[in-house]
């Protein structure tokens, strides 16, 4: 604005030296307005989103905010602050981005509290003790969280399907299949109609397509048309097409599982080739996905009870290596721990051809797959049967 005022002043006095001010006041006033408008309109104003956070059970803890990374992107912290108390909100200012999802994380913790920056002001009320949080001010976040909550209700209803009794096993299985189909259909319909690209990406990543990669590609093709300017969606579509070709021939029971090499907790490269002539169970998980953590107690039991007959290898799909190391150390996950920071674009998924986590392979001493995708409540029974 200083440059704007200098230009106006110079123009003003130059004109006075040639013309009578009173005769030309209207013309001069008009010129001043034009110059002011021109100068001010050429100054770009960057729109921002103000994020106001009240967080409990995190006093004196440091919190970080970062945009959610995609595929091979590295996690990039955009801001941080120290929590004083629940009555002293933390305020961050970030670029307005209706298609950008951000996450809040407490140092040393594994929980992530997400929101979309699609409003001028977004409010988060977080309870760090139980992981519950509310977001207001962001229409896209509200829509997405309503969808995710409805999906969780469907998953919870699976637990209400009692263990089958003689004579009704088929009926109960049909009920389970109906619930799972409803989960799939709800997610597909939401992703296919939501008008926010960040919400679409989150919803898309919850869909378990199984081997139906054509449906994944179709959904992404329609999203690219709907959100044509979003480069991430174009990359996701290319990934989906590549996945179709990679996973068309997944590894099944009786196949020889390829060798993979990844860094362990100390940073040294570990190869599954070193497990030659041994039975081993290799599983895939993530610190940020609670569903995969259900296996931890089972894996502890396997490690302690079957350690002499079976090697246990866990591969984390994590781009936050510090969060991974912290969880491994604090929860005493003492068996072989590896990490694939590239996650779905990394060595493990691309070589072993699986498309969801949690996932696992049980491999015999000849390198042959003898079981896969074993559920938590079935692992011990499967090991007892196959390790005789």
What key attributes describe this structure?
388 residues, alpha+beta, 4-stranded mixed sheet, 12 helices, 41% helix, disordered N terminus
Secondary structure: number of strands = 15
Q: Largest sheet, described in full?
A: 5 strands, mixed
Question: Per the principal axes of the C-alpha atoms, what is the gross shape?
Answer: globular
What is the radius of gyration? 28 Å
How far is the first residue's CA from the last residue's CA? 82 Å
Q: Helical stretch count?
A: 12
- Given the helix and strand composition, which structural class is it? alpha+beta
- Residue stretches low in confidence (pLDDT < 50, at least 5 long) are 1-44
Give the % helix.
40-55%
Q: Quick recap of the structure?
A:
The protein has 388 residues and is α+β, with helices and mostly antiparallel strands.
Can you offer a commentary on this structure?
It is globular and about 65 Å long. The strands form four sheets. Strands 13-12-11-14-15 form a five-stranded mixed β-sheet. The chain starts with a helix and ends with a helix. By secondary structure, it is α+β, with helices and mostly antiparallel strands. The model is unreliable at 1-44 (pLDDT under 50). Helix 1 packs antiparallel against helix 2 and helix 3 runs antiparallel to helix 4 (169-193). Strand 12 (311-316), helix 10 (321-330) and strand 13 (336-339) form a beta-alpha-beta unit. It has helices at residues 2-16, 21-41, 139-159, 169-193, 197-204, 213-226, 231-247, 290-293, 296-306, 321-330, 347-352, 379-386, and strands at residues 48-56, 62-67, 79-82, 90-95, 97-106, 113-117, 121-127, 133-136, 261-263, 269-271, 280-285, 311-316, 336-339, 359-363, 369-372.
